[in-house]
Write a structure and sequence with these properties.
This protein is an alpha/beta fold and about 220 residues long. The protein has 8 helices and 7 strands. Bound molecules: 3,4-dihydroxybenzoic acid and magnesium ion.
Length: about 220
Amino acid sequence: MNRYESTTVWNAVDAYFTTRLTPEDAALVAARESGSETTMPNAEVAPNQGAFLGLLAQIAGARRVLEFGTLAGYSTIWFARAVGADGQVVTLELEDQNAEIARANFVRAGLEDRIDVRVGPAAQSAQQLIADQVAPFDLVFIDADKPNNPVYLDAALALTKPGAVIIIDNVVRNGAVTDEDSDDSRVQGVRTVTRDIAIRPDLDATALQTVGVKGWDGLIIARRR
Ligand code: DHB
Ligand code: MG
């Protein structure tokens, strides 16, 4: 199979399982489609990845989720549903424009009471959470600007306790992650955070490659001991 043919098959398989196992309701469809109005069209997670993140949150029994990178709030909705009516999701977004789109999506989904969107550089918003000594988070999803992944990991560690789950999106990037000489700061952000995780004895972690409607990419999944 050439590249085009494999992409077609990946998309068909995603559609097969997504329609059967994790069909989107109107609120998710609206959130996904509004992604095109954000400053980063098409960067939201795939439908089956959103479902996967929601399942991980449920498996972990997460009540408090922290997300770096909101965009239109597609993955945020999956997390907010997973944490339940007593749970909370804090999601950090750089751009006011995106945050406004996301807030409208949360209202449409009836989830605005359990989602706190904070606008500004995510590193600063996270420092504020640390300064405010907010309750620890059970799960952290790092999905913002990739060069800052190491900064976001440090913040995630300051905002969690043992047992917490930390997930990092977009760690494969069509295989570019293996290029140690890459001049792409996003690739280096992934490589540095991978090293940071590797040298920490209190983090168990693995990485999974994904293919599908978002092409070839992957996730790091870590757990604090
Ligand atoms: C990019 C960022 C994302 O979070 C994503 O899911 C896909 C692409 C990007 O920076 O290009
Ligand atoms: Mg992403």
